Amino acid sequence: MRSVRARTAVGATLVVALALVVAGVALLGVLRGNLVDQAELEAEVSARSVASQIANGTPFAKLDLPDDTEEHPVQVVDEEGRVVAVGEDIETIGGTGSPGTKAVAGGAAGRGEVSEDVDHSTGEVTVDGETATYRFAAVEVSGVTVYAGAPLATEAATVAGVRDAMLAALPLLLLVVAGVTWLVTRRALKPVEGIRREMAAITASEDLSRRVPEPATRDEVARLARTTNETLAALEASVERQRRFVADASHELRSPIASLRTQLEVGAAHPDLLDVPGAVADTVRLQQLAADLLLLARLDAGERPGQGRVDLAALVREEVAQRAGDRVPVRVEAEDAEAVGSRAQLARVLGNLLDNAQRHAEASVAVTVRREGRHVVLTVADDGAGVPEPERERIFERFVRLDDARSRDEGGAGLGLAIARDVAVRHGGTLTVGRAVEGGALFALRLPVG
Questions:
Q1: Domain end: 115, 141, 158, which one?
Q2: pTM across the whole model
């Protein structure tokens, strides 16, 4: 059974069938018990009626026994097991003090009290050739025991009737349960089928702008539809980012490759006109761009950073020492603090932040490293124009340049800050930008303490 509706209907039917069987058995048990109790009460009333006569001194031969022997058979047995009184037309009797059906000659018992105790037993009695099962009550009085019975035929007939009615109604009830479950499940799963059809259409058309229908209910199916649409929206945005990334990367690669090819073609035709420094610069720029694209590809693929301990203060000093002759000097204030991750990737983040700061600074760049509770914070501040507040999140997008008028050689490809934030996030940290005291940009890298 591959259908959810079929499995649900069968499962519900089996559960209901089991519940009905258990309930039916319990009901028949209670009914049988009540009917047996009623028979015992009738037998006890009949036995005490005869016992009262004996207690009053009535001779055994003159006891007023029930006329309807088939309904209330009676037998009186003395202490020696002899039958002293028995109902008329009883041919055989079982379940009493004696199997005898003939009374011996005897007088009467002495006056006495009827015992409060009652014993019960079950036996078969044959009256006028008809054998039936009876429930007997035994009451002692004046040295004899009175056995009086009540038939269990009513109990058996009633229980059998109820059982037959239940067995007859069970298949119909189970059929109704199966049908209702099928219809309810079909109605409940109808939106799911709509979602499936739409997803199949989206897969076939590759149109991620389409969305599955969302039911107006607030149940699990509606939440599934909303989650599916959110997933489609995220997937559409991801694919769109990938498309833009490929287009921008192609555009960025085309410029240095075209420039380098032109210079090499000119150099091949006119060796004296070859611009070697320009060709080297284009090659370096092309190499840096390829390295950036490769790192972004690894980050997008889910590459996890290493788990080494990185001394950020030492890392800052090493990086700044390599920039001693740069246009804008870098001031360092660093206290010892370690983070866990990839030293190469964190060095890349620091290098990108310093490149960005030196590109926009007027006269100074400051780097600080300090601990704040369970985090280590690395800041890079400059005294340039700063980042307008509406653009402070946009600058972390790939291939974004706020100054579109500047040259590509001076401004880079717009990947440095995007790489820096991706690396920070994959190290369990954050990278944000604000306003420095000097008025320029303040980039803050926050990482968990190693």
A1: 158
A2: 0.52
Q: Is 282 exposed, middle or buried (0-12, 13-18, 19+ CB in 10 A)?
A: buried
* Domain shared by 281 and 334, yes or no: no
Residues 195-239: tens digit of each pLDDT: 888 889 988 888 888 888 888 888 888 888 889 999 999 888 878
Give residue 206's region: left, alpha or beta (phi > 0; psi -120 to 50).
Answer: left
Nearest CA among 76, 72, 73 for reference residue 63: 76
- The domain of 378 spans 308-448
Hey, how many other C-beta atoms are within 10 angstroms of the C-beta on 136?
Answer: 29
Nearest to 351 by CA among 370, 326, 371, 334: 326
CA angle 358, 250, 281 (to 5 degrees): 45
User: Which tokens belong to 229?
Assistant: 């649409």
Torsion of CA 287, 288, 291, 292, to 10 degrees: -150
427 CB contacts (<8 Å, ≥6 apart)?
Answer: 305, 339, 340, 341, 342, 345, 346, 447, 448
Structural domain total, the chain: 3
**409 pLDDT more than 50:** no
The SS3 of residue 424 is: helix
Per-residue b/e over 204-232, b at no fewer than 16 CB within 10 Å?
Answer: eeeebeebbebbeeeeebeebbeebbeeb
Joined tokens for residue 336: 């010892």
CATH number of the domain residue 121 falls in? 3.30.450
Within 10 Å of residue 156's Cβ, how many Cβ atoms?
A: 14
Residues 344 and 287 in one domain: no
pLDDT of 123 reads 94
399 in the same domain as 314: yes
DSSP string of 125-181, one letter each residue: EEETTEEEEEEEEEEEETTEEEEEEEESHHHHHHHHHHHHHHHHHHHHHHHHHHHHH
Which distant-in-sequence residues (6+ apart) come within 8 Å of 16 by Cβ? 173, 174, 177
Are 54 and 142 in contact, with CB atoms under 8 Å apart? Answer: yes
